[in-house]
Write a structure and sequence with these properties.
- The strands form three sheets. Strands 9, 10, 11, 12, 13 and 14 form a six-stranded mixed beta sheet that branches. A five-stranded mixed beta sheet has the order 3-4-1-2-5, sandwiched between helices. Strands 6-7-8 form a three-stranded antiparallel beta sheet, with no helix packed on it.
- The protein contains seven helices and 14 strands.
- The longest helix is centred in the middle third of the chain and has 19 residues, at 114-132.
- The chain has two domains: 14-132, Nucleoside Triphosphate Pyrophosphohydrolase (Alpha-Beta Complex); 168-305, Alpha-Beta Complex (Nucleoside Triphosphate Pyrophosphohydrolase), CATH 3.90.79.
- The radius of gyration is 22 Å and the shape is globular.
- It is of the alpha+beta class.
- The structure holds zinc ion (ZN).
- The site of zinc ion has 8 residues, from loops.
Length: 315
């Protein structure tokens, strides 16, 4: 299944990234379009069905430093698409885009097409990576962008370390046993609506397989041992750049025991309770689950559908 932020249609044309002449040529073409990001927020067109606020080179020239800032996202029917960070002082009007606005990726994603949400996420992750990787991890000298935004190289010629945009793997698991599923409320969710519970999740650590990460995180956070682990699907999550690896995990016998540093509560829910929460995900209730754009929501739907005939297609 394709989750929100996956499903992009651009040809990433990775072979062009290191071809400076080809990229320079693409930047010059009339069909080249640029998606500005102010901090982590892309420009989005207004109206009832918003789209990405692509600008021409001419529109962008007013505020942007130069093509060296453009991050090559790929080709759409042969025309180049770039993400471009713009200074935080830039206003929509400066770009001749009065009806457009810079909007948060998470807020706007449900309003966009699958393909646009994916392009927006790719750009956000790349922009955020450059903003936080200005220095060489080996010698501390400044680094500069290379490969049209898909790498950075240390500017000290004696060092020259090259870094690539990172994606951090996170396992997220729907834990089940005897027809019930285990959901937790993270300590960091205190600002979220009452009743919100979600799948347990955590970063994969060095030297660990996906299955081992699922078992370790479940034991650490909920005190439960897990037997069979089954991969379901994955979701790029551009906050700033993780890959959520969705699994079903069968708990062995035992009572949950929470790690109070991680979870505020954890408990078993019946299929009926979960179904109610999935259908009424945006209403107050004893149990709330995250919105449909999250893999946690889709894992819950998929688990409910197994054997029940519920439609699991993306709502
Ligand atoms: Zn260096």
């Amino acid at each position: 299944m394709t989750h929100t932020f996956a499903g992009g249609c651009l040809d990433r044309a990775a072979h062009l990234r290191s071809d400076a002449a080809a990229i320079a040529g693409l930047l010059e073409t009339d069909g080249a379009r640029f998606l500005p990001y102010r901090a982590a927020s892309p420009l989005v067109t207004g109206g009832r069905s918003p789209g990405l606020g692509w600008l021409s080179a001419e529109d962008l020239a007013v505020v942007v430093v130069g093509p060296s800032e453009a991050l090559f996202l790929g080709l759409e029917e042969g025309e180049a698409r770039f993400a471009v960070p713009v200074p935080e002082t830039v206003q929509e009007g400066d770009l001749g885009a009065g009806s457009s606005s810079f909007r948060g990726v998470r807020e706007v994603a449900p309003l966009l097409s699958v393909a646009d949400a994916s392009v927006m996420a790719t750009g956000r992750s790349l922009v955020a990576w450059h903003a936080s990787h200005g220095y060489c991890p080996r010698c501390g000298s400044a680094s500069s962008m290379i490969d049209a935004g898909h790498a950075r190289r240390c500017t000290d010629s004696r060092c020259g370390v090259v870094q690539f945009p990172r994606t951090d793997p996170v396992v997220i698991m729907l834990i089940h046993r005897n027809g019930s599923c285990l959901l937790g409320r993270a300590v960091r969710s205190r600002r979220y609506p009452p009743g919100l519970h979600s799948c347990l999740a955590g970063y994969v650590e060095p030297g660990e397989s996906i299955e081992e990460a699922v078992r370790r995180e479940t034991l650490e956070e909920a005190g439960l041992r897990v037997g069979h682990v089954r991969y379901h699907s994955s979701q790029p999550w551009p906050f700033p750049s993780t890959l959520m690896i969705g699994c079903f995990a069968e708990a062995l016998a035992g009572r949950p025991r929470i790690d109070p540093a991680e979870l505020e509560s954890v408990r078993w829910f019946t299929r009926e309770e979960l179904l109610e929460a999935v259908v009424r995900w945006d209403e107050d209730g004893a149990l709330r689950v995250p919105p449909p754009l999250t893999i946690a929501h889709q894992l819950a739907r998929a688990w409910l559908s197994e054997g029940s005939g519920l439609d699991t297609s993306h709502p």
